[in-house]
Every structure is written in C-alpha cells, then in structure tokens.
Amino acid sequence: MINQDSIYSSDFYDFLTGKASTAMSRRMQRNFKEVGIAITAEQWSILYNLWMEEGLTQQELANRTFRDKPSITRLINNLEKQKLVIRVNDKEDRRSNLIYLTKIGRQMKGLTMDQATRTIQEALEGVSREDVEQAHKTLHRVYKNLM
C-alpha cells in the first residue's frame, strides 16, 4: 500500500501529468526529424496500429490509441494529406470508414520502427531489465485498477 504522503509528492503528480510519456514523444519526433521522417509521434501511433492490422475503423483506432474521435479524425486527415493512409467505405456499415495504409505508408514501417527502437533505448539507458519489468507490472496494475 502507498502511504498518503507519497500520493501527494511532486513525483506522483509528475507521473499523473505524463511527464515521461511527453518526453518520449518529443524525443521520438526529434529522432524522426533527424532522419527526414515528417510525422508526429501521435501519427506514428496510428500507423503502428495499422501496421499490426489494416482496415480498422476510426473508432477501433481511437480505442487502441486511447484518443477521442475528434483527435483520431484530425490525425487521419493529416495522414491522408501526406498520402500515408486512405479511407474506404465499409461495405457492411456505410456509416463507417475503414483505414488502410498506402504503399508509402507501408514503406515507412522499417525506418520509423528503427527510430522508435532508438527512442526506447535512449529512454531506458541505465535502467535495469528488472526495473523495467517492475515498472511494467506496476503500470499494468494501475491500469487494471482504473478500468
């Protein structure tokens, strides 16, 4: 159990505000930019999910990336402008669009995954495997507590 004093520490509020997550996103964008990739970390999260499974609806992408529908719409609009994804009407549900990668979107996978891996390596420098495993267990528990 956590005592009340630790709940009110500034470290806990840094955790709540997503300080580490924000720093990771910024570093990943910087790493992308260094190698000429013109996408944001948010856009990458959409592409990543499509590399895992194409033909997802905007709602499925919202659920998988923990974003609201307006944010997903904006991200997909921008990815479409960059010719990385296309929307296709769902034949089974005319109200929905299915999101697919374009050839260019598929070709970006290798280079962007290299930069994502680089970002994770930079973030975990000096962190032991045991600490990573413990952090994963803790964050998974926090997530389960809130679902």
Low-confidence stretches: none
Please, how many domains? 1
What class would the helix/strand composition place it in?
mainly alpha
- CATH architecture, by name, is Orthogonal Bundle
Gross morphology is globular
Proportion of residues in extended strands: 5-15%
Number of strands: 3
The largest pleated sheet is described as:
3 strands, antiparallel
Query: How much helical structure, as a percent, in the residues?
Result: 55-70%
Counted by DSSP, the helix tally is 9
- Major sheet: arrangement of strands: 1-3-2
Classify the fold: give the CATH topology: Arc Repressor Mutant, subunit A
Q: What would CATH call the class?
A: Mainly Alpha
Give the radius of gyration: 18 Å
What's the average pLDDT? 90
Distance between the termini: 19 Å
The arrangement of helices and strands along the chain is HHHHEHHEEHHH
